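Notes on consecutive records. When two proteins share a document, each keeps its own sequence and its own token line. Never mix them. Below: protein one.
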Amino acid sequence: MNTTERAKEPILNAEPAVQRRLLDLQDVDLQLDQVAHKRKSLPEHQALTELVAEKTVVDHDLVTADTEVSDLQREQKKADTDVEQVRQRKARNQQRIDSGQINSPKDLENLQHEIGSLDRRISDLEDAELEVMEKLEAAEAVQADLRTRAEAFAGRQTELETTRSAALKELDEQRAELGDKRATIAAELPDALVTQYQRLREHNGGIGAAPLVGKRCMGCRMELAPSDLNRIKAAAPDAVLRCEECGRILVRTSESAA
């Protein structure tokens, strides 16, 4: 805040004890800021964000694995059916031959030729069936691993959410307690002083009032010039002063050099 803007603000007066009470309000506000920061920066927030990202990938991969296993199971079922159908056809042909129902040598030759073809067909289908079984076994292993990981992620997520909820509950209790304390202190202070303090706090990194310790403003940590110290010494005890360096309310205490 520049000098022109500061000049437009009302001149305030408050008893020294009231001004020192303003420092108590500042202290509570800083504690509230710390609680708010802790709520936002709980390690569980980041851990959950990372966990959910990893879990999303695993869940997606699991859906893909489930689909692949389902497709291979259908493919294996079809391969089993195809093999069984050819075997049944071969068995029927062999039964006709064994029963002696075939009197024509040509028909017998045709059946024997077909049985040979069916044997080759069965061999090819069994090879295909075995290949599908091997693929299914590998896919089921991947599926089982992904499911185990997904379940582990879900368990870890529940654990983190429980821990976070407990931490947030504790911080919310602290915030409520500090909020009550703040309301009590604020009620003891003049409205105009609280309004000015809050406005300065918003524009000065959360600190609207600071004590003068020795020759130093504890808001900006700057040592005041001799002329400023003389001005402070000359001011009435109830005058609400401002730091010339940072513009914050400057509260005189027993540790002040002025």
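Protein two starts on the next line and is unrelated to protein one.
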Amino acid sequence: MTEPLPPTRRNRASLTYKLRYAAQNPDKIRTYAARVARDLKLRISSRGHVAYYRAVMKSDTAKNPEAAVGSRSHERWLKLGQMQFDYLREHGLKPGDRMLEIGCGNLRAGWRFIDYLDSGNYYGIDISPDILLAAQNTLVRQELRDKLPHLTLVDDLKLRFLPSEHFSVVHAHSVFSHSPLEVIDECLANIGRVMVPGGFFDFTFDRTEGTEHHVLREDFYYRTETLTALAEKHGFTARFMDDWEELPHGQSKIRVTRPD
């Protein structure tokens, strides 16, 4: 019997993988077929990837805001948020930092950052108005209105409305895993302007050690060297965060730092 490939060697876009997965998970065929149908509809009706994924989030958020950000249950939503917060606090985040969270979602980790940071020091952006409304509900539920967080809707990652050299920490969890390379390039081309010298940007991504690929237009898999080279092209130093791999999460993490 052929040994199954490790996760980082699988090409989830290949017909062979899809057929094998369907045979092993027949209960998921209907769900995947619905995703394919939605994908075809949104490709036709959406102009560009941001519009496409905003429509995906609208659909998913209407069903369950926590599931829309990748949490199968409320318990998992809490655990993933705690994991992100603990890791960042252990790797340099301080209360006095000014933090930008790209793709803040419904504040799965964001509410913990808001609670920890000094008042007014958290700025969350997202492309989905629906998930930002859910984020407001999280703020109310956690009684964090007095921490004066900023939540802003965006159409792109050019960040033209943000001040220069303002943020010491930037964070993006499960954003580049849903982004084509041109969107990631746009972010890295512009993020340095809003970061202070010596500031860092942590982002997760779906890692492959084989052929880079995507499933529908929702899930993108990149080689580590592709993203580190892209970051270095825009003047950052970049390193793969090995200890993040030890945590129970399916994505990998890179930290890019703006030189002093």
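For the record: The mean pLDDT is 93.
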